Amino acid sequence: QTYSTLYDVVSQALANHQGSLLVFLPGRGEIHRAQEYLAKLCSPHIELFPLYGDLPMEQQQQAISPAKQGQRKIVLTTNIAETSLTIEGIDCVIDLGLSRQMAYDTRTGLSRLRTVKVSRAQATQRAGRAGRLSAGTCYRLWSDTEQQGLAPHATVEIKQTDLTHLCLQLHAFGCSDPSQMQWMDQPPEGPWQKAEQLLADLGALAPSAKGWVITAHGQSISQLPLSPRLGHLLLTAQHYNALELGCQLVALLSEKDPLAT
Questions:
Q1: Which of 6, 25, 32, 9 is nearest to 260 (CA)?
Q2: Model pTM?
């Protein structure tokens, strides 16, 4: 239903406007699905381009470069185009009102991507992508009632992300109490304690009379450009003379989807 509605709106926008279109979708999977639905709208004068962070740089450049003379573009993008990019010739934005955000689950101790509604500030920012260089139009695929129910602003990242790496780095710098630092937003106490306990389980922190202190193993992990879990895996593999296998596992686990083709 969502993609058939999107097809109708894109078709209407192509008929009502002369420039290129920017369509906001939550993630790569939705972009690929939308490509299949919207392929029928393509012609020698209308091209379809995906745009997301994992896309090869050459394909990203094709998406953000101006359309050729006499041609129009439909760019399917994630929130990567909310603020950092201006695509010349875009005079119409179509927004599904969804975004993919990394959220930390204190129950499992893991971060996972989840699809959430955009905030009102994000919706305004997205609408501003239309007509950066001239007048523009924005189609929002949600009601006025839903608009009023949107949060004013998105939740700041430090409130919903895994704090394990940040926690280890502060301990490596000699700071065991985050309140000693000046923050725009203080790290939440519960996830911070979870991060310290995880680091203790990895052998990166050890208890002392004054609280947690970083261990030699923790210092070694902190010097690796990896998350603490993967750093611990790599050092453990080295300890058991299986460094090559450890490197292979870390390389696989560092990919968002190691089985993607």
A1: 32
A2: 0.77
d(CA 40, CA 246): 46
Decide if pLDDT at 80 tops 70. yes
Residue 110: helix, strand or coil by DSSP?
strand
> What are 193-210's pLDDT values in tens digits?
989 999 999 999 999 888
Question: What does the DSSP assignment read for 182-225?
Answer: --SSPPPHHHHHHHHHHHHHTTSEEEETTEEEE-HHHHHHHTSS
Q: How far apart are CA 5 and CA 75, in angstroms?
A: 17
User: How many Cβ atoms from other residues are within 10 Å of residue 158's Cβ?
Assistant: 16
* Residue 50 contacts residue 59 (beta carbons within 8 Å): yes
Three-state SS at 175 = coil
Q: For residues 170 and 181, is the Cβ–Cβ distance under 8 A?
A: yes
Identify the pLDDT of residue 110: 63
